[in-house]
Amino acid sequence: MDYRILGRTGLKVSAFGVGGGGPSRLGQRYEKSEADSVTIIKEALDSGVNFIDTAEAYGTESIVGQAIKGLDRDLVVLSTKKGVNQQSTPADVQAGLETSLKNLGVDYIDIYHLHGVITEDYDYLLNEIVPVLQSMQAAGKIGYIGITERFHADPQHAMLQRALQDNVWDVMMVGFNILNQSARERVFAQTIQQDIGVLIMFAVRAAFSKPERLRELLDKLIAEGKVDPALLDEGDALGFALDGDGGAVSLADAAYRFCLYEPGTHVILSGTGNPAHLRENLQSFERPALPLATLDRLQAIFKQVDTVSGQ
Fold it and tell me: How far apart are the C-alpha atoms of 241 and 253, rounded to whole Å?
């Protein structure tokens, strides 16, 4: 397992992060038992993963708590999130933190994020809620303060570009994938400079596992003039990523490796409720970067795209 320092937090984190949200929510959306979901997390931990992300809204905090019960607290880095808007009060956030601590069965949370923030709410949250986070940090209940974007609604990263103007965020969760690489210039250039930890979400979504969804999105982007169809393979549009020495074994494999080796990224989140799928994903993190020719072509194809999330 590859480990990295999560920016200015100094935390040593696995490049693979267990994601407790996404379409699966550790299998809970597919009627898996809580015991099944706990087993998934434990297998990831046994494989060297030490980073787990969840959120109040996901309903998986207590599952994470079960999975880490009895473990040395220093061996796992926990990230969770509180959904907020302009109606959120300091008391709401304080209560949310206490509930998360109870669900996770811990005394402190390594990274506590404001979840899915939109630009319209940002200034209110900065002025009214961030001081509450800072006080909870001073009390030892939060290690570091984070913020996550609502990528499907803000694929151009407007909120994060605003947030980068304020030196209060230790960690940011960013939407980034093969189809929408706009964070490279709009976010990563600044997070690298400010030494902000970066968690990647949406590395793999429906477009990378469902050929019909990928074709639908590509047709949309071609119609909008954002993708040149001449750069795509006939038939299997991104099939070139699977060709040649060092090529990917699947489009999902290519997607994870594309994000894993992108400068400025630290943890790539991956969520599943299927043990075999977990092992496949873990294998992607053991493989080298995609061939340079493949990376260059993927960047050329999608360099103008900033309107889709890959969902």
Answer: 10
Distances 172 to 44, 165, 168, 214 between C-alpha atoms, Å? 23, 13, 11, 27
Q: Is 58 a catalytic residue?
A: yes
Can you read off the two tokens belonging to residue 209? 């596992």
Percent of the chain with pLDDT over 90: 92
Predicted model pTM? 0.96
pLDDT digits (tens, 9 = 90+) for 115-138: 999 999 999 999 999 999 999 999
- At 25, the pLDDT band (50, 70, 90 cuts) reads confident
The span from the CA of 181 to the CA of 299, in Å, is 8
Which of 58, 112, 122, 144 is catalytic? The answer is 58
* 212 Cβ contact partners less than 8 Å away, ≥ 6 residues apart: none
Nearest Cα residue to 181 out of 262, 293, 290, 257: 262
Per-residue pLDDT of 276-289, as tens digits, reads: 999 999 999 999 99
> In Å, what is the CA distance from 118 to each residue of 21, 76, 83, 145, 152?
19, 29, 11, 17, 11
- Using CA atoms, how far apart are residues 252 and 248, in angstroms rounded to an integer? 8
